[in-house]
Design goal:
Blueprint lengths: L1 H4 L14 H14 L36 H7 L2
C-alpha cells in the first residue's frame, strides 16, 4: 500500500521508531520543517495588570465531559 499511494502530491514519510523518544522528536522536527515561515519582528507587549476577580465559581467537574486520564494508569501500576 505504501508503494502504491506514495505520490509527490501526498508523500508518505517513514519514521524509524526503535527509540520512541527520538522518533517523536524527529517527527516534530520534520513536521515543523515542512511549514514555510519567516521570522517576524515583534514589538514589546504591554500587558495590563490583571483585574480583580468578580466572584466566578467553577461548575462541578462532574458536569463536564473529560478525556480519560490514560497516563495515570500507565504510571500507577494498574
Amino acid at each position: 500500500m505504501l508503494a502504491a499511494t506514495d505520490t509527490d502530491t501526498a508523500p508518505w514519510t517513514v519514521v524509524e521508531s526503535e527509540d520512541k523518544r527520538r522518533a517523536r522528536l524527529n517527527t516534530i522536527a520534520h513536521l515543523l520543517g515542512t511549514v514555510p515561515w519567516t521570522p517576524t519582528d515583534l514589538s514589546p507587549l504591554s500587558i495590563p495588570a490583571r483585574p480583580p476577580g468578580e466572584g466566578y465559581v467553577r461548575p462541578p467537574r462532574e458536569l463536564a465531559r473529560a478525556v480519560p486520564d490514560h497516563a495515570a494508569m500507565l504510571f500507577d501500576g494498574s
